[in-house]
Amino acid sequence: MANRDLRRGPWLEGEDEILTTIVGALGEKHWDALAKQSGLRRSGKSCRLRWMNYLRPNLKHGEITQEEEAIILDLHKHWGSKWSKIAKRLPGRTDNEIKNYWRSHLKKKLEAQQAGTKSNTKQDTAIPIRDRSIQCISTKSSMSGNEGIFGTSSISETPEMCDMNALGNDSPYESRISEWISSCCSWPSDQVIDDEDCMGTYTYPCFSQLGSSCEESKNHGVWDLWNPIWEMS
DNA sequence: AATAGAGCCAACCGCCACTAA
DNA sequence: GTTAGTGGCGGTTGGCTCTAT
């Protein structure tokens, strides 16, 4: 189909239904072929985008929560504008949504914060890595809806604190953590964790099963996994 | 009530990486 | 090794809604 024949602009309800049906039948791949087969006068790219950002099951369409906001802020510090990477850490959210949220809410917020803190030079508390890790686990635990510590600086101060990459890609401890995670997680099927990104704590929903304290985390085995890492540091 | 400006978000664009021929 | 096709990503834009005047 020539480009000029392609429809553009907002999607109609009928188009959504057709796309949903055809993706259900053919799967989320071969978007060009799928677009042609559907009879929709849309490009494959357009179909993919509509599906990924709006029609896909399990998408959240509500407001970004404070917890999600904290994660976005932290991961943005860590990765910059790697929106798709960040989106993978927030099940049900799309890269586009996060990007828009960042631009319309967080960027200004952050700039205002920085402007405010510039005058009184920030004290870097230089938390030892051991303590950072403890904080990190506690932080994730708060995501279960228990009283949490999001909103404090603990999570955003130290991008490396939960970064498994910092330990080296073939760390035996990373493997152990991965094994443990896969044994206890009910990771959503649409979530893909690649090795390169494999970082701990709030990456994994299963941590929310751990209760709200380090003590409880201990009881669930996290302590054993992290301990050797702390010892190494 | 009218209107201008700001904010927000869905969708598009262009580039890059990957893969198959 | 080269090329064309495709998918994925980040940046940008257009248009709708909200708010202030």
From TrEMBL:
Any one Pfam family here would be Myb_DNA-binding
Q: Which GO terms describe its cellular component?
A: nucleus
InterPro entries recorded for this chain? EOBI/EOBII-like_plant, Homeodomain-like_sf, Myb_dom, SANT/Myb
Q: Chief location of this protein?
A: nucleus
Outline the extent of the Myb-like domain.
Answer: 3-55, 56-106
Please give the PROSITE patterns that the UniProt record associates with this protein: HTH_MYB (PS51294), MYB_LIKE (PS50090)
**Keyword set for this entry?**
DNA-binding, Nucleus, Repeat, Transcription, Transcription regulation
TM region(s), chain numbering = none
Q: Start and end of every HTH myb-type domain?
A: 3-55, 56-110
One GO MF annotation is:
sequence-specific DNA binding
Task: Say yes or no: keyword Transmembrane helix present.
Answer: no
Subcellular locations according to the entry: Nucleus
Family annotation (SUPFAM superfamilies): Homeodomain-like (SSF46689)
Name the domain of life: Eukaryota
User: What name goes with this protein?
Assistant: Uncharacterized protein
| Source species | Tagetes erecta (African marigold)
